[in-house]
Amino acid sequence: MANEILEAVTIRLEFETGLDEEGMPIVKRKSFSNVKTDAAPDNILAAAEAIAGLQIHPLSKVAQIGTTVLSH
C-alpha cells in the first residue's frame, strides 16, 4: 500500500482585472508558496483575504494547491 505525505502547499489568488473584447473576465493570478502544510483552511482563507485587501482588483477565487509524495 502506498503512503501519501503532504510535502508543500501553495495558495493561488485569482483577481478579476476587467473584461476582454468579448465581455469575458480577465483573470490575473498571484501564488504564494511555503505555506505551512498543517495550516487550517480557515487560516489560509483569512490570509488570502488579508492579501486581497491590499490589491486594487477584487478577489474572485482562492485555491490551495498541495504537493504530495508517494512512497511504499
Please give a quick description of this structure.
The chain has 72 residues and is of the alpha+beta class. The chain has 1 helix and 3 strands, in the order ββαβ. A 3-stranded antiparallel beta sheet has the order 2-1-3, covered by helices on one side.
Provide the residue-averaged pLDDT.
96
Strand runs, count: 3
Largest sheet at a glance? 3 strands, antiparallel
Poorly predicted tracts of residues: none
**Shape from CA axes?**
elongated
Helix-strand sequence: EEHE
Q: Strand pairing plus helix content: what structural class? A: alpha+beta
Helices, by number, come to: 1
What gyration radius follows from the Cα positions, in whole Å? 16 Å
In percent, how helical is the residue content? 10-25%
- Cα(first) to Cα(last) distance is 6 Å
Strands of the biggest beta sheet: in what spatial order?
2-1-3
Approximately what portion of the residues adopt beta-strand conformation?
over 45%
Protein name: DUF1659 domain-containing protein
Domain DUF1659: 3-70
Pfam family, one: DUF1659
InterPro entries: DUF1659
Written description of the protein model:
By secondary structure, the chain is an alpha+beta fold. It has 1 helix and 3 strands. The chain has a 3-stranded antiparallel beta sheet, covered by helices on one side. The chain is elongated and about 50 Å long.
What order do the helices and strands come in, and which of them pair?
Layout: E1 3-19, E2 25-35, H1 41-52, E3 59-71
Antiparallel strand pairs: 1-2, 1-3
Keywords:
3-stranded antiparallel sheet; 1 helix; 72 residues
